[in-house]
Design goal:
- The chain has 331 residues and is of the alpha+beta class.
- It contains four helices and 13 strands.
- Helices cover 31% and strands 38% of the residues.
- Strands 1, 2, 3, 4, 5, 6, 7, 8, 9, 10, 11, 12 and 13 form a 13-stranded antiparallel sheet that branches.
- Strand 4 and strand 5 form a beta hairpin.
- The two termini are 37 Å apart.
Length: 331
């Protein structure tokens, strides 16, 4: 019985030892990915803020501006791109919807973001856009790669339609999670007007070409990123927009008219939900990448040691057994 048990234990040890690297280097790269049907809604607020009153063309202080950011996975489009790209692709249709203190729309900017489900690298495909304008992204947006490294990354800015380094500042602890803190400052840059304006009948092209007024923007972007999942658990922006020159800003000091200024932060309830969600996903990724492979390797070693110990006891028992005396057989 001991011999049979040792063979069974040895077989289990071999199975665990073989499964450990298989899970780490075969299963993890294939199973750790962003789901194509993901839906996420985040509410951010700037309280207080400065907002342009389009009726008087004067900036005014307001108690709060709300930004609703939605990300919706476009499963049908992702399958179409996967068929030609030959890899797992995620298509996010996002919308940044800005609401003033009166509950009315201030601006809305849709995006279509196409990226590799495993690496989060951009996938350039038809439909990749910001506010209906075709773009070609470089670097990351919304999410960093799995196992984010403590280094600078290229980050795509939707306002300027360009990518620039977002700088790794250092490690932090945020709501009990070990995170990496990143910062990016976008200098004052001339940017397009949103196609959807807060006043009906106003054509963005008319403002710039007919009235000679341009839109400028700057921001300081801050992310607290959980490195295992690459998901930001918190994001903030110190954001400013201005109208410059032309008829609309002719009477403003320096012909610079503030459109929006504020420190945008995630609302407390959404912040707590995001932290809990990222913590749960962190555990799932670590199970595939670290916990299960190491656990299987350890169990394989223990089972192998136990099998050898049982085999040694079996052989020692045979050696120590007294010799049998001959049995007389009657003639």
């Amino acid at each position: 019985m001991r011999r049979r048990a040792s063979l069974v234990l040895l077989a289990l040890a071999v199975f665990c030892a073989a499964l450990a690297p298989l899970m780490r280097w075969y299963m993890y790269p294939r199973l750790a990915k962003i789901p194509a049907n993901q839906y996420q809604e985040t509410v951010l607020e700037a309280a207080p803020a400065t907002l342009l009153d389009y009726g008087t063309l004067q900036p005014r202080k307001v108690p709060k501006i709300t930004i609703v950011q939605t990300l919706k996975g476009n499963v049908e489009r992702s399958r179409e791109i996967e068929a030609s790209a030959g890899r797992d692709v995620v298509v996010w249709d996002s919308l940044a919807y800005v609401i003033g203190p009166d509950g009315k729309m201030v601006s809305q900017v849709p995006e279509r973001y196409v990226f590799d489900a495993h690496t989060q690298d951009p996938v350039h495909a038809t439909g990749e856009s910001v506010d209906g304008d075709p773009v070609r992204r470089e670097g990351v947006e919304f999410k960093f790669p799995f196992f984010t490294e403590p280094r600078d990354y290229l980050y795509f800015d939707a306002q300027t339609r360009t990518s620039a380094p977002i700088h790794y500042v250092g490690p932090r602890t945020f709501h009990g999670l070990d995170v990496y803190y990143f910062e990016q400052t976008v200098p004052w840059t001339k940017v397009p007007f949103p196609k959807k304006m807060p006043i009906e009948g106003i054509d963005p092209a008319t403002i710039e070409s007919g009235l000679g007024t341009s839109r400028w923007y700057t921001t300081k972007r801050m992310f607290w990123v959980e490195p295992v999942t690459g998901a930001p658990v918190n994001g903030e922006e110190i954001h400013s927009e201005e109208l410059r020159g032309g008829q609309l800003a002719a009477n403003a000091p320096g012909q610079r008219l503030v459109v929006f200024q504020g420190h945008v932060k995630m609302r407390a309830d959404y912040l707590e939900h995001t932290v809990d969600l990222v913590a749960a996903n962190r555990t799932k990724v670590l199970v595939l990448h670290t916990y299960a492979p190491i656990g299987l390797a350890v169990w394989g070693g223990l089972l192998c040691a136990l099998a050898l110990w049982l085999e040694a006891r079996t052989r020692r028992g045979r050696t120590d057994a007294p010799p049998r005396e001959p049995v007389a057989v009657a003639a």
